[in-house]
Amino acid sequence: MLGGLILGVVEAMVSGFFSSTLRDAAAFGILILILLYKPAGLLGKNVCEKV
Fold first, then answer.
1. Which of 7, 14, 16, 29 is deepest in the core (most CB within 10 A)?
2. What residue ranges in 1-51 does DSSP mark as E strands?
3. Residue 2 Cα distances to 7, 17, 29, 31, 51, angstroms
4. Model's pTM, two decimal places?
5. Which portions of the chain are predicted below pLDDT 70?
């Protein structure tokens, strides 16, 4: 829910301030950054698993 809201706001701001063709690129960039830095999700917890 939070991720969808953030993506919607970012897409609206990018299409408002810049060209609307950059809207998809901004969405993919945000998704890639979140997955690189927070792979468990925005509100996920780091869980250590013993193997």
1. 14
2. none
3. 9, 23, 17, 13, 32
4. 0.64
5. 41, 44
Which residues neighbour 10 within 8 Å (Cβ) at sequence distance 6 or greater?
26, 27, 30
| Residues 42 and 34 sit within 8 Å (Cβ to Cβ) | yes
Q: Provide the pLDDT for residue 31.
A: 84
**CA-based nearest residue to 6, from 44, 46, 42, 45:** 42
Question: In the chain, what percentage of residues exceed pLDDT 70?
Answer: 96
d(CA 11, CA 47): 32
